[in-house]
Amino acid sequence: MNFIEGRFCTLIQNPKVAERAVLLEGAVVANQIKETVKAEVQHLSTRNIVPCLAAIRVGEDPASAVYVRNKILACAEVGIRSEHHALPESTTTEQLLDLIQTLNRRDDVDGILTQLPLPKHVDETVVIEEIDPGKDVDGFHPVNVGRLSLGRSAFVPCTPAGIIELLDYYHVPIRGVNACVVGRSQIVGRPMAQLLLQRDATVTICHSRTKDLAAITREADILVAAIGRAGLIGADHIKPGATVIDVGMNRLTESDEIREMFGDGAEKRLEVLAKRGSTLVGDVKPVAAMEIAGRFTPVPGGVGLLTVAMLMKNTLTAAKARRGLSDML
Ligand code: NAP
User: What is the pTM of this model?
Assistant: First the structure.
């Protein structure tokens, strides 16, 4: 452990090039966010207020089941009441809208989230737009998207909001730096770019049609990769000393892919593959980030943990705002 800019950080030493990158540990920041939420929830309980999150899941997608379970567990950890509405695959858009309308009306429900993706026959856009913007703790409703783009208070999607918390925790300068976000999804890329812009970064957004991606990303002091392609960002894409945030969550199932991604350090991941049949990797080649970047987020252990912590924070904010205890919305 080393003390850098007021924080203890883990340094990764690369014996070959004697370079080092500071590892930005999502777990540390996520725990701090949850502790703060827990303390505020306890304080609210003295006034007989218990925030409540309603999570809706449709169908049997195993990844969605894991995500919702983790969100429910996090609620229990911080003292937020939760409801899990697990609906069958055959649920129609109308049935889902009925449930959301009921949850919108209920005074004891502060936050509503619909786990995405929904089954193909359900109209996702209509469902998201039905959620009361004041209970939209995922920040996907057009009212919140619009307010964010206007620079006004809004529920912000949890992953990009968590990344800003991570950058602040590690005192990474944002004002005036070149930031590049690769990916333009509603969930990560676009809100990430908005948040960086609000903090006075000079922001470039790249996507699948961007010409000469590496030439653009190489200019970035803060590079956020939210693509969903294992190891797409390599040595050519990273500016020396940059802060590299890897949002990608990809599963590798082939040993060749793992060797290509991790080089000499593939052994541990090959063991994971043998044990579990796959291993979780990001969009950034870790060896390249370790050698060239100044700071980077590992996968797993980086951004992923922040998302659920920020959901807890958004639910607390909703509970306070609905009772006039915060000026949000
Ligand atoms: P998405 O909706 O599929 O968006 C991917 C973006 O990447 C798109 O904008 C796409 O461009 C761009 N892209 C694809 N191929 C590219 C290429 N070759 N060069 C440049 N850009 C390219 O995905 P998402 O929901 O934003 O998620 C991105 C990744 O983050 C996924 O791996 C996901 O699992 C992960 N994720 C992690 C968390 C977390 O908590 N850690 C949360 C959410 C998402 P176009 O727009 O042109 O198609």
Answer: 0.94
User: How far from each other are the two terminal CA atoms of the chain, in whole angstroms?
Assistant: 41
Handedness of CA 24, 315, 318, 101 (dihedral sign): positive
> For 243-296, what is each residue's pLDDT tens digit?
999 999 999 999 999 999 999 889 999 999 999 999 999 999 999 999 999 999
Any residues with Cβ below 6 Å from ligand 1, and which?
159, 182-185, 187-189, 206-210, 213, 226-229, 232, 247-250, 303-304, 307
Range list of H helices, 108-153: 124-130, 142-149
Nearest atom of ligand 1 to the alpha carbon of 250: 32
Distance from Cα 247 to the centre of ligand 1, integer Å: 8
**How many residues are recorded in the chain?**
329
Q: At what angle do helices 255-262 and 267-276 cross, to 10 degrees?
A: 150
Characterize the bridge pairing of strands 202-206 and 111-114.
unpaired
